[in-house]
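Board notes (copied after class):
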Amino acid sequence: MTDLYAITLPDGSVREVAPGSTPADIAAAIGPGLAKAAIAARVDGELRDIGRPFEGDAQLALVTSRDEPDALEMARHDFAHVLAEAVQQLFPGTQITFGPSTDDGFYYDFAPTAERGPFTDEDLPAIEEAMRGIIRADKPLRREVWDRATLISRWKQQGESFKAQWAAELPGDEPLTVYWSGDDWLDMCRGPHLASTGKLDPDAFKLTRVSGAYWRGDQNNPQLSRIYGTGWLNKKQLGEHLVRLEEAAKRDHRRIGQDMDLFHLQSEAQGSVFWHPKGFILWRQLEAYMRRRLDAAGYAEIKTPQLMDVRQWERSGHWGKYSENMFAVPDEVPNAEGEGPVLHGKGDMMALKPMNCPAHILVFKQGIKSYRDLPIRMAEFGCCHRNEPHGALHGIMRVRQFTQDDAHIFVREDQLIDEVKAFCDLLDSVYRDLGFDKYAIKLALRPEKRFGSEEMWDWSEQSLRDAVKASGRDTAAYGWEELEGEGAFYAPKLEFHLTDAIGRTWQVGTIQTDTVLPERLDASYVGADGERHRPIMLHRAILGTFERFIGILIEHYAGRFPLWLSPVQAVVATIVSDADDYAHQVADKLAKAGIRVETDLRNEKINYKVREHSLAKVPNLLVVGKREAEEGTVALRQLGSDRQQRMTLDDLVAMLVKDATPPDLR
């Protein structure tokens, strides 16, 4: 008699099935509605094909389109494979490489034939139509496990040199799986996939662009054509996403930054920002606000060196983990005589700091610290450098030189929960002041490769859980979630994900509990027992970096900042030149009241001036002519409103001063 497998369902019930049975069989046995709705299965927690046979007793949870994260992941993965099949159908000889899903879609990298040349955006409509044909054909997607040598041989015979190379380099104990689309096309893939191409909605995807890429991300390897697409479960979701993309394009911080004359970037300083006067006003207002909040919260601001000996980074453990992203600098004077090598290589190596934490421990270690001195809160608006690849740079959102709103808090064990709770409260207040009422809190747990003992990780993770609970934020309203394996190598961390005005999320704030770095760099305090003890080091940031957060602010507000942050808070524009003197009087009075004001006395029509200053996102346009000069009034036009309001100069000044007061000073 054949032994049966015991399959346990989420409600605790158990079904016994014969070997060779699949999750699809169980769905069908439960009912025709579930059989139709089930698109995949979680078997012992692993997401699998609905038609993959069980291998023994298992826990089973059937996945439907209502399980949106899993459903979207699978749909996007399938769209990528359909894209690859369509491209090879249209352009024979094209080699396929990789095609993963992304946060909002998918991409696939191709090696076109030399005769064909790289793909372009003009190719996308034809590829889309071929994809829809494959989807409508409802081709079964079938998983097979292949012998390594057989698969490599097949790839070579078909001229798929990239796939052959990748198959040869996969770990020897890893089974090589392929998926057939019908009986005429296959790709190497771990899966899982939907049961057939027809499970995709042919109207729920769109190819968006083509770019260049390198095989395995190495610029020394052959260049490929990468085709991007966005994929969803249905046409409605796609339409909503395309509207968001259109809105995001309007809010692009690079375009708005240029329109408002805030900053620029250029190749002579890859990944570093040239801040213009108006942009730096925005920076200074944000920095001053953060400094006031930190002062009020009991932080002491410090400043630490940009360059430190590499041996310090070796002791901290950062050199082993981050050296490829650090800028190393030899400690020697270059030879400028024109003969011999420029550098002799005899000097010690220094490194530009990619983070501030080791330097903050060195400050902590100056002098003997008592348990009574703790907590010690050290803040630094620290300028750091990381050697990001050129292709990864993106406006001011991802740069090489950046300034963190960084701080480290040294605490005793009994102080940790209160300090993390206080940080959560401070962060909540800052985000709301800056216009972000919605954010999610996620706990990133221990990664596979890490420092420290299991007991340390258990305690650190539970302490963060307890702190969030104490703050009342371990709830669905705050998007509370735990992320397996995503902690730093030395500590678990809380991540804070903002939601902006058009629904995008940005991971910005963080706080991490660290017992490893104080141990490695020998930081200690004298306890009540007179013995040395290790402090716990909390790494924390609220904005993350000024550059990226300002980029987020630009896109969140679409350049229409709250008045206290606006680089230019008002422009006095004349209708006729006879009002020039009065325009200067208005501007002088506003400037003395602390308002950032400019004048526009050009010999242009007022409608032209209104349009130009609206494009520059000036929040208040003060129009003055003969009548206003005679009456001591102004005509106020506020950004986004067609209404004009006539006010006395004194009333205007009082209103703008009130509106321009930073939220923490009101």
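Comment from the instructor: Residues 68-90 form the longest helix (23 residues). The mean pLDDT is 92.
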